[in-house]
Amino acid sequence: MTETNIDAALAEELHRIAPDIALDDIDRTQDLREEFDIDSMDFLTLVTALGKRFDLDMPEADYPKMQSYDALLAYLRSKMA
Amino acid sequence: MPEDTIIKSEAAAKAANMVDYAATYDSFRWEDARREIDGLPGGHLNIAYEAIERHVAAGHGAQVALRWIAKSGERTDYTYLELSQLTNRFANVLRSHGIEKGARVYSLLGRTPDLYIAALGTLKAGCVFCPLFSAFGPEPIRARMEIGGANVLITTARLYKRKVSALRDLLPDLRHVFLSDGMAEGTDQLSPLMEAASPEFTAEPMHPEDTALLHFTSGTTGKPKGVVHVHDAVVAHHMTGRLALDLRPGNTYWCTADPGWVTGTSYGIIAPLSNRVTMIIDEAEFDVARWYDILDRESVNVWYTAPTAIRMLMKAGVEATKGHDFSSLRFMASVGEPLNPEAVIWGNDVFGMPFHDNWWQTETGGIMIANFAAMDVRPGSMGKPLPGIRAGIVEVTEDGLCEVTKPLAIGELALRPGWPSMMRGYLHENARYEKCFRDGWYLTGDLAMRDSDGYFWFVGRSNDLIKSAGHLIGPFEVESALMEHEAVAEVAVIGVPDETAGERVKAFVGLKPGYAPTEELMLELSGHARKRLGPAVAPKEIAFRKNLPKTRSGKIMRRLLRARELGLPEGDISTLESDEQ
């Protein structure tokens, strides 16, 4: 999967959970939960959806690596590299 | 005795604050509990005085009262003396802006020191404090500020711009907005005002029955209810902190609840400080590794958390605890919703002690039924009533109320009112308040049973309220927000079981003619609800229906939707007129 595709897929999954937040309006380097106004439950839903979509194991121990949009994107890229 | 009972050793029992439950319960008198707080001359008192000033006066000013852990992991300590001066400054800021005794001061803040300073400074000044959960959207915020007649709001620039600025015209009572950071039109920056204010202030001597706190809770129908608590509640906060949480002066204590909910105030501010512990405050949201780090590094002695978090820790597995030292941990408790027996036992296996589940509500102000340090734990049970609290299982019929004493008979959990932290009313809603009482009992709305040894067991709720991640959500508030959308003809909101959060909010939506049930519309509705309500209240799932099941009088039958969703028997459907399609 190309990097653009990963980016698009992440944006799509986030849109499903927080359709009221536009990607252009957020700071991609800041706290993901705050930027998208999502709670712990939403975050779990997001991780589960991404894991399923990319067939990835995304253990809780890795959550600290998913703190911002950019960090999560980098994490996904590294897992699929 | 049930097989899985967790037996407390004699040594452990002897070390507890309450060694003998039965003897303490029998001899307990509230006037004795009242002697454990200092009070002020003339029969007056002030929660903030009990929480801070009396410890400073007794020479404990140098003890850390609050250790704040920022999202970045950076730690900041505030001693009792510093907390005293900061809250004095805050009280002076209120006074210098013409905010007098009795005014309503709201906060909309994350778990930052400003929140704790504002709460205690407000109480010191004799004003009423009302904390709002920062994950609320504009609609729950507006409703709560309007009902309570908020005069002052403390928030951040970000939260103000996102959620409050557009509401200003709707809130005529709101006189001042103080920002803990940043700037925005129509607001004042708090920090220069704090710096300029005097660190001297004498806590306002309050009548025990003067209002101190306003907490909002959801109703099945209608608007959220403003639950009124008074300064005298500190007597119960202090006593229950000592007996149900086993708090001791000098302990390190971590309550993971947000002060936007009653637990985070009663047991995240008042009870711990009045018992002179060092409180850990973590700004960040739940994270497995971070939480184990905090328990270990801060040498937490007493930990009060919630089932959702415990279940997430269980999911992460024992491996996540490896390399950590939890030897300082002495007592663990849980509240918010019933803790499943597996989680109680898991705690015992992993930490060498069970989670002690307890039960109470926003209305009761403090812990009512609990598993105590010196008492054997029956996993799945909420424990036994606190000393000073008389609990019963009752059956309410048209003829009146009757107490059911037969062991394991299911009925409504009821309490004999009269303890200091009991609500004094629902603000401006006396009829709703009166409805909670019958024949000298307060009816809790929860169904429960009592076993032959006096342990209480939660069975279910007698109403449609949803409990998600420990937060009580009223279906009506969610339905109202969805109804505002032009495509929505009718809507019913229920709680569906969720492995981690207990329940998850699900909305069933019937569309107006001309609207098609597309994925796109579903996302639009979801976005609409999130914008209005915020992530903590908005539905996590939306399903379209052509028609919702209704009674002859046109009332949507949430109960039936829920039974069908869960595959349960549909029960009495004789009133069903128009069925689900």
From TrEMBL, chain A:
Gene3D superfamilies per record: ACP-like
PROSITE patterns: CARRIER
Cited InterPro entries: ACP-like_sf, PP-bd_ACP
Signal peptide residue numbers: none
Domain Carrier: 1-80
UniProt cross-references to Pfam families, sorted A to Z: PP-binding
Protein name: Acyl carrier protein
Source organism of this protein record: Roseovarius gaetbuli
From TrEMBL, chain B:
Residue ranges of domain AMP-binding enzyme C-terminal in the record: 477-555
One Pfam family cited in the UniProt record for this chain: AMP-binding
Record EC number: 6.2.1.1
Gene3D superfamilies: 3.30.300.30, N-terminal domain of ligase-like
A GO cellular component entry from the record: cytosol
Keyword set, alphabetical order: Acetylation, ATP-binding, Ligase, Nucleotide-binding
UniProt GO BP: acetyl-CoA biosynthetic process
Name by which UniProt lists this protein: acetate--CoA ligase
Residue ranges annotated for the AMP-dependent synthetase/ligase domain, each copy included: 55-427
Molecular function, one GO term: acetate-CoA ligase activity
InterPro entries: AMP-bd_C (IPR025110), AMP-bd_C_sf (IPR045851), AMP-binding_CS (IPR020845), AMP-dep_synth/lig_dom (IPR000873), ANL_N_sf (IPR042099)
